[in-house]
Amino acid sequence: MKHESSADPRRCPPARLRSRVGAACVALALAGCSVSIGIGHFDDGEAVIDPGNADTVAAAAFDTLASLAGPVLGIADEPFRVPADERPRRAIVPGTFDWLEWIAPVRGAALPVSGRFSSTQTLACDSGMVEITAVFANTVAFAAGDTVEVDAASCRFGAVLFAGRMAMRVISASGYPGTSAAWSARVSVDYVDWRTETVTLPVQARVVNGPVVLDARRLDAVDAVIDFDSPELLVDPVVSGAVRDRRALRFLSLQFTDRPQAASVSGDLELVDGRLAGTDLATLRVRSHGVIDLPLSPPAMPRGVLLASASDDSAVYADAFDPAQLRLELDRFLDGFVDASLLTTWSALRGLL
Fold first, then answer.
1. Is 318 within the bounds of a domain?
2. What is the per-residue pLDDT across 156-195, written as a single tens digit (0 to 9) for each?
C-alpha cells in the first residue's frame, strides 16, 4: 500500500532524482512541484528516524508541546473535555500565567513588616484550599525581589486538580497582575512536584519539576504574550491513568500568544523521553516550523508543523494540516528533501503514548 502526499515548495526536489531514496520505496514520481513517495526501507542503511518510528517521534513531540502550551495536558487529553472558562488552565505555560494573575491580588491584605509588605493567606478553590505566602516591596505594583509561593493540596478548579508548590520571584515588572488592564513582568518560577490532573476520567496528569523564566506581557483585557525559557524541566506524564516514563525538556525556549478564540505557540527544545531510553532516539530536537495554532474550541487539535530531528540529522516534519490528520514527511539528511511520507491521525498517535 502506498501513502501519498504533496510536498510544499520548500522541500520540492530538483530535476535530478536523489539516489539516496532506497530501491524498496514503492514509487517516486515528480510532477511540477509535487512529490509522491511510498513508504519502504532505505537501501544504504537505516536512518535513526525512519518509516517505522516516525509516528512515535511525532506523538512524543506534539504531546510535549500540548503539555506546555495547551489547552490540554498532552494530545491524549482531548479538548472537548476542557470547559471554555477553565481557570487556571491545565497546560504548563498558560496555567502558570493564570495562577500569577489569580494570586497576585493578595497584596491587598499585605501587612508592613520591616520595610516590606507580607501576606500569608489560605484561599478557597472550588474545593480544597491553596496557601499563598507573599512578600512585596509595595502594594501598588510588582517590583524586583517580590516573591510569591503557592502550596496547593487537592485544590480543584473546574475539572482540574492542582497539587504541589510553585515559587515565583519577580526580576522586573510594570503594573500588577490580576488588576492592571496591561502589565508586564519577568518572573523566575521554580516548580516542586507541581501536579496538574484532570478530574474527569480517564485521568491525564503532569508533574513538573525545575526552574523557568517567564516573561509575561498582558496587552489588554483579553490578549497576552508569554516567553517561557528553561535550562531543564522534568515532566512526569500520566496518560489515561497510567504513569509514563519521565521526560526532560532541555534548553527550552517557547513563545506563546493568548487570545480569546485561539492561542498560538512557537518553540525550540531538546526532548529526552524516558520511553525511548536506550535507543538512538533517546534525545530529540523539537522545533516548530513556523507558528503552531492552538484552537480553544473543538475540534481543537494543534494546527501546524513540528520538526523533530535525531542525533544523525535524520528528521520528520509532522504536519498537522487538519483537525483529524497529520502528514509525516521524512527528511533523512535534514537537507530539505523529502525521502518518504505517510498519513496518520491523532487517534493513531494517542495510541503510541
1. no
2. 999 999 999 999 999 999 998 988 899 999 999 999 999 9
